[in-house]
UniProtKB/TrEMBL annotation:
GO CC annotation terms, alphabetical: nucleus
Protein name (Swiss-Prot/TrEMBL): WRKY transcription factor 55
Cellular compartment(s): Nucleus
Keyword Membrane among record annotations: no
Keywords: DNA-binding, Nucleus, Transcription, Transcription regulation
Gene that encodes the chain: WRKY55
Gene Ontology MF terms in the entry: DNA-binding transcription factor activity; sequence-specific DNA binding
Length: 275
DNA sequence: CCCATTTGACCTCT
DNA sequence: AGAGGTCAAATGGG
């Protein structure tokens, strides 16, 4: 089941990449090499997820700087890190028990590539599907880049999710994103499914009880209904069709999802245990 | 007017 | 005392 969480994280990471590509698609115009790299990255991530689903990987090494989702044939620097909980060291534990000691749980850290291009050249990390509000910035000792602090926009609804984003010293093209506290905001009528265990603090967990409509992320000019809630967060769409419009990334993602055992929904991927 | 960002001050822990 | 994390007033944009 831990493998399921990791595979989920992998899939969600791929989704986030696809979503990021969508939001930057204009910026990639005229730069096919960037577009190709981005597509390759996305397909790699989904392929890894697919491979995992076919044959679960061996147990992971101790968490730390482990490259959790790296495929053997994947050369790009766009892998994400692994979970770090008790293995994250005393500073994490300290932070978890600080101030508002919500839960004495850990965090989920991942490394994500900086978008190749952003509208206006803004130096912001890739979108992960949730909407965040920046509430602080801090210079970190020994780091060239400041750490940015974000909390979920839906704080008003009691969502205490937070994330810390810091650009890596050794590789400024990468961000280290630390997620803290689970998202409890959910505006969709479909109840959110939070995976059990420490990965409650992982990247966005989307409703799993309905088919994930990857095409909904490409709804800019498509009539696929409103798949983004008022906070801008992607929500699961009841349909995975994007209509007849050519939508390569969505197709890719859908193919990757649908390549698993003929069932297309996340339910199909992680069938309920007791049912 | 509302909301997000910026930024300095403050809080907590080691 | 220093560092990481958070708060909240000021500011600006839509």
């Amino acid at each position: 089941m831990e493998e399921n969480q990791e595979t989920m994280s992998l899939i969600l990471h791929g989704c986030a990449l696809a979503q990021d590509l969508e939001s930057n698609i204009a910026g990639y115009a005229g730069q096919p090499e960037l577009l190709l790299a981005s597509c390759d990255r996305i397909s790699d991530v989904f392929r890894q997820a697919s491979n995992r689903l076919r044959s679960p990987p061996p147990p992971l090494p101790p968490i730390g700087d482990v490259t959790l989702f790296e495929a053997p044939d994947y050369a790009g620097p766009t892998t994400v890190g692994g979970t770090d909980f008790e293995a994250a060291g005393p500073s994490v534990q300290r932070a978890a028990t600080r101030r508002k000691k919500k839960d004495s749980c850990g965090r989920y850290t991942e490394r994500v590539p900086a978008p190749a291009l952003r509208a206006g050249g803004a130096d912001i990390p890739p979108d992960d599907g949730y909407t965040w509000r920046k509430y602080g910035q801090k210079d970190i000792l020994g780091s060239r880049f400041p750490r940015n602090y974000y909390r979920c926009t839906h704080k008003n609804y009691g969502c205490g999710a937070k994330k810390y984003v810091q650009r890596l010293d050794e590789d400024p093209s990468m961000y280290e994103v630390t997620y803290r506290d689970p998202h409890t905001c959910q505006t969709s009528p479909t109840p959110i499914v939070i995976l059990p265990g420490p990965s409650d603090f992982g990247p966005p967990v989307v409703p799993l009880s309905t088919t994930i409509g990857l095409g909904s992320w490409f709804s800019g000019s498509l009539d696929v209904g409103r798949a983004i809630d008022e906070g801008g967060r992607s929500v699961g769409s009841a349909s995975q069709h994007v209509g007849d419009v050519d939508c390569p990334v969505a197709d890719l993602a859908d193919v990757m999802f649908n390549s698993v055992s003929g069932r297309s929904s996340m339910e199909g991927i992680f069938a309920p245990k007791d049912d």
